[in-house]
């Protein structure tokens, strides 16, 4: 009964986001819901049972959505997926920004071209990167700081997510566990999506890179969430004194 109530409560906001349309954020909402339910004590049998149904269903939905004339997703979303599967055909349109992103990251090599460099060969300086301050900020990191800088960013985001999980394990109640695990999952999942798009291992989406991408609303929301996580950690400390 509790699970059913939670599904009903998440279904309304998820549907509104999906109909905007905002497919990437709706996927994040579903992922966060699964993480929160698991952190709240949902049985592993239920989790694996749901995955056994969800994975084939998702594959079927994607297959149907890519069919000509399908209305499951918008034409723009369909072309983004097709551009990911066959980038050469969409090199000048839907796959353009991801191809330039990969080129920028590769051009940084090991050390990078330097922070705010004036190199003529810089794709950022030549305005070849679309949304370089938000969606493709990782491309700028790869170009200016190279492989070393990119690894540092990935490790820091991973460390934040792991620390949130650690706090969740030490929380004194279920609410604290859900808060900390949810924030850890958000940072990890959204970071993976953003970097995945920039490196062309995922289709194009519009998700920001946590704590890095430009945007005051995103930044303040993440800091507020981390404030809750710190509060959970402080309360856990008090219970052990």
* Biggest pleated-sheet summary: none
- What number is the mean pLDDT? 86
Strand content: under 5%
Number of helices: 8
What does the radius of gyration come to? 20 Å
SSE-based structural type: mainly alpha
- Give the uncertain stretches in residue-range form: none
Number of DSSP-assigned strands: 0
Blueprint of the fold:
Blueprint: H1 2-18, H2 23-39, H3 44-65, H4 75-85, H5 96-107, H6 137-170, H7 174-198, H8 216-240
Helix pairs in contact: 1-2, 2-7, 5-6, 6-7, 6-8, 7-8
Concise structural overview:
Helices cover 68% and strands 0% of the residues.
What does this structure look like?
- By secondary structure, the protein is mainly alpha-helical.
- It is 68% helix and 0% strand.
- The chain has eight helices and no strands.
- The longest helix is centred in the middle third of the chain and has 34 residues, at 137-170.
- It starts with a helix and ends with a helix.
- The model has no long low-confidence stretch (mean pLDDT 86).
């Amino acid at each position: 009964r509790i699970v059913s109530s939670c599904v009903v409560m998440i279904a309304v906001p998820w549907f509104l986001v999906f109909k905007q349309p905002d497919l990437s954020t709706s996927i994040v909402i579903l992922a966060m819901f699964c993480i929160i339910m698991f952190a709240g004590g949902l049985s592993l049998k239920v989790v694996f049972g749901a995955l056994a149904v969800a994975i084939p269903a998702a594959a079927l939905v994607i297959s149907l959505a890519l069919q000509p004339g399908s209305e499951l997703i918008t034409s723009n979303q369909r072309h983004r997926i097709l551009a990911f599967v066959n980038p050469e055909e969409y090199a000048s349109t839907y796959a353009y920004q991801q191809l330039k992103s990969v080129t920028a990251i590769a051009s940084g090599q090991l050390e990078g071209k330097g922070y705010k460099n004036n190199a003529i060969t810089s794709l950022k300086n030549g305005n070849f990167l679309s949304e370089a301050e938000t969606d493709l900020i990782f491309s700028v990191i790869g170009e200016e700081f190279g492989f070393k800088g990119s690894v540092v960013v990935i490790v820091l985001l991973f460390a934040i997510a792991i620390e949130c999980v650690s706090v969740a394990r030490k929380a004194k109640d279920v609410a604290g566990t859900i808060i900390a695990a949810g924030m850890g999952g958000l940072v990890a999942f959204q970071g993976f999506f953003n970097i995945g798009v920039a490196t062309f291992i995922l289709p194009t989406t519009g998700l920001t890179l946590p704590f890095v991408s430009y945007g005051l609303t995103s930044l303040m929301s993440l800091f507020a969430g981390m404030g809750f996580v710190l509060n959970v950690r402080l309360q856990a400390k008090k219970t052990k004194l």
